[in-house]
Design brief:
The protein is of the alpha/beta class. It contains 17 helices and 22 strands. It has two domains: 2-257 and 460-480, Aldehyde Dehydrogenase, Chain A, domain 1 (3-Layer(aba) Sandwich), CATH 3.40.605.10; 262-443, Aldehyde Dehydrogenase, Chain A, domain 2 (3-Layer(aba) Sandwich). It has helices at 2-6, 48-64, 72-88, 90-101, 105-111, 117-127, 161-175, 189-200, 215-222, 236-247, 271-283, 303-315, 335-351, 384-387, 403-411, 426-435, 467-472, and strands at residues 14-16, 19-21, 28-32, 39-44, 131-134, 141-148, 151-155, 178-182, 208-210, 229-233, 252-256, 262-265, 295-299, 354-357, 374-379, 394-400, 415-416, 419-422, 442-443, 457-458, 461-462, 475-482.
C-alpha cells in the first residue's frame, strides 16, 4: 500500500495550514501504478469548500502572521531545517516518484538525495536580504525593497512532481510568501511527504498547505480573489487558461509550459556526443519532458548516420518495471497518455514520415502503459509530430540544407522552451544559441540547473523559475524615498 511504501502518516488527509484534516465530503483520489495498472493507494480529495477554507487560512497567515514579517536570515534558518527533514525522507521521495510516474528507481534513488538543496540554495539567497540602497537623481536615498508577493498557489504537473514543486515552494517561502500546493491528482505523494517535512521543521501555522484535488476544484482555487499569485507548470492549454483567469483580476502569474525543442546537429558534431546528448531527453521519464529534444535537425549529408545512431541507441534501451535495477525507461504515466502517444505515432505514419524504430508496445510487457522508444525520419516541420508536443519517447529527424534553414526550422514553432546545438566549435555553438528563440539552450546536450533561470519564450510560458530570477518572481518591488537612511542601512 502507498502509506507503507512512502511512510505517510496521513495519506488520505489534506494538509491545511499545518493541520491534517479529512476532506469535507470524505472523498478520495485513487493512485494507479502505471507499470501494473493496479490501484496502489488513495489520498484525500478536496472540495470547493476545502479550497475556500485553505485560502482563508493562508490569507490570515500572510496578513497577520509572523512569516512575511521575519527577516530573510530568520526564514533561511527554517528553510535549512526543511532541507534536513527532506534528507531523512530521500528514499520515500524516490519511491513515490517511481511508484506514481514509473521513473526507474535506479534513477530516482540517485536524484532524490539532492532535492533538499533547493531549500539550502534559496536560504542562501534569502540571507542576502531584500533591500538595496540607490541614489536618486534629485538627491537623498532610495531603498528598493522586495516584499513577498502574498498568498501563492503552486500548481504542478505529474512528470517531475517534486522538482517542479520545489522550484515554487522553496523560493516562495524564502521570499516570505505563504504557499498552497496543488499537486497533480495522478502524483500527490511527494507534496504530502514535503508537508510532513515542513511541519517537522516548525514552519508557522497557515504558511504551507497541500490540497489534493481534481481539476474542476483546482480551477475554483485559482479563481479565489484572495490568491495573489499562481505559479503553474504544465500544458500550454492549461497555462493559457490560468493566465487569463489571473489577468482578469491582475493577479501575478508565472507559467512554465510546453515545448517542441530542436537539437541542431552541425556537420562537425561528434556522433558519440550527439547520441549521449539526445537520448536522455528522449527516453528519460519516458520522454515526458517539456524540454525534450524531440526535433532532431541534421544536414542531408549526415542524416543517415545520425538517424541510425539514435535508432540503435533507442533499440538498446531496457524498458520495464521501474523497480527493476536493469530498467532504463519505465511506462507512460496514465492510460490516457498512453493512448495519446500512440495516436501521435499513427499520425506520423499517416503523414508520410518514415518509422525507423519503435512505434509499438514492448512485446514482453503485457500490462502497464509501456511504449517502445520511437524514431521517425524523412519528416518535415509542418507535420503534426513536428508541431505538437507528444510528451512521450518519440523523436523526429528533420533534414536541413543550410544553417540558415536550420535556424528557420528551429524557430518555426509556437514554443520556445529549450534547444541545443551539437558542434565541436564553441564559437559556432554560442552564435547559434543567440539566434534560437528559446529560454534555454545547450551545447552538446541539455542542462537544467535550479540555480539558473529556467523558462520559455512564446507559448512556452511567462516568467522564470530558478536562480535569483526565481526568487524575485515571488516578490513585489517597492521604492522608498528618504532624505536620510534608517539606522540599519547606514554604513
Amino acid at each position: 500500500m502507498t502509506d507503507t511504501l512512502v511512510n505517510l502518516s496521513n495519506p488520505e488527509k489534506l494538509f491545511i495550514g499545518g493541520d491534517w484534516a479529512a476532506s469535507s465530503d470524505g472523498g478520495g483520489i485513487e493512485i494507479v501504478s502505471p507499470s501494473t495498472e493496479e490501484v496502489v493507494g488513495r489520498v484525500g480529495k478536496a472540495t470547493k469548500a476545502d479550497m475556500d477554507r485553505v485560502v482563508a487560512i493562508a490569507r490570515q497567515a500572510f496578513d497577520h502572521g509572523p512569516w512575511p514579517r521575519t527577516t530573510g536570515s530568520e526564514r533561511a534558518k527554517v528553510l535549512r531545517r526543511i532541507a534536513e527533514e527532506m534528507t531523512k525522507r530521500a528514499d520515500d521521495f524516490a519511491r513515490a516518484w517511481s511508484l506514481q510516474v514509473g521513473m526507474p528507481y535506479a534513477q530516482s534513488s540517485m536524484t532524490a538525495p539532492y532535492m533538499a538543496a533547493y531549500f539550502t540554495y534559496f536560504a542562501d539567497l534569502a540571507e542576502q536580504g531584500f533591500e538595496e540602497v540607490r541614489k536618486p537623481m534629485l538627491g537623498g536615498h532610495c531603498i528598493v525593497v522586495r516584499e513577498p508577493a502574498g498568498v501563492v498557489v503552486a500548481v504542478v504537473p505529474w512528470n517531475a512532481p517534486l522538482a517542479t514543486l520545489l522550484l515554487k515552494v522553496a523560493p516562495a517561502l524564502a521570499a516570505g510568501c505563504v504557499v498552497i500546493a496543488k499537486p497533480s491528482p495522478e502524483t500527490p505523494l511527494e507534496a504530502l511527504i514535503l508537508a510532513e517535512c515542513i511541519a517537522a521543521a516548525g514552519v508557522p501555522e497557515g504558511v504551507f498547505s497541500v490540497v489534493t484535488a481534481d481539476r474542476e476544484v483546482s480551477d475554483h482555487l485559482i479563481r479565489n480573489a484572495d490568491v495573489d499569485k499562481v505559479s503553474f507548470t504544465g500544458s500550454t492549454a492549461a497555462g493559457l487558461h490560468i493566465a487569463s483567469v489571473c489577468g482578469g483580476r491582475m493577479a501575478r502569474v508565472t507559467t512554465e509550459l510546453g515545448g517542441k525543442s530542436a537539437a541542431i546537429i552541425l556537420d562537425d558534431a561528434d556522433i558519440g556526443a550527439v547520441v549521449a546528448g539526445i537520448m536522455p531527453n528522449l527516453v528519460g521519464l519516458c520522454g515526458q519532458q517539456c524540454a525534450a529534444f524531440s526535433r532532431i535537425l541534421v544536414s542531408a549529408a549526415r542524416k543517415a548516420e545520425v538517424t541510425e545512431a539514435v535508432a540503435a541507441a533507442m533499440r538498446a534501451v531496457t524498458v520495464g518495471d521501474p523497480f527493476d535495477q536493469a530498467t532504463q525507461m519505465g511506462p507512460l504515466v496514465t492510460r490516457s497518455q498512453h493512448g495519446r502517444v500512440f495516436g501521435y505515432i499513427e499520425k506520423g505514419k499517416a503523414e508520410g514520415a518514415r518509422l525507423v524504430t519503435g512505434g509499438g508496445r514492448p512485446t514482453h510487457l503485457a500490462r502497464g502503459w509501456f511504449v517502445e522508444p520511437t524514431l521517425f525520419a524523412d519528416a518535415s516541420n509542418d507535420m503534426v509530430i513536428a508541431r505538437e508536443e507528444i510528451f512521450g519517447p518519440v523523436g523526429t529527424v528533420i533534414a536541413y540544407d543550410s544553417e540558415e534553414q536550420a535556424v528557420a526550422i528551429a524557430n518555426d514553432s509556437n514554443y520556445g522552451l529549450s534547444g541545443g546545438v551539437f558542434t565541436q566549435d564553441p564559437d559556432r555553438a554560442y552564435a547559434m544559441a543567440r539566434r534560437i528563440r528559446t529560454g534555454n539552450f545547450g551545447h552538446n546536450g541539455r542542462v537544467i540547473d535550479f540555480t539558473m533561470p529556467y523558462g520559455g519564450f512564446k507559448q512556452s510560458g511567462i516568467g522564470r523559475e530558478g536562480g535569483v530570477e526565481g526568487l524575485h518572481a515571488f516578490t513585489e518591488v517597492k521604492a522608498v524615498f528618504m532624505p536620510e537612511l534608517p539606522s540599519h542601512l547606514r554604513s
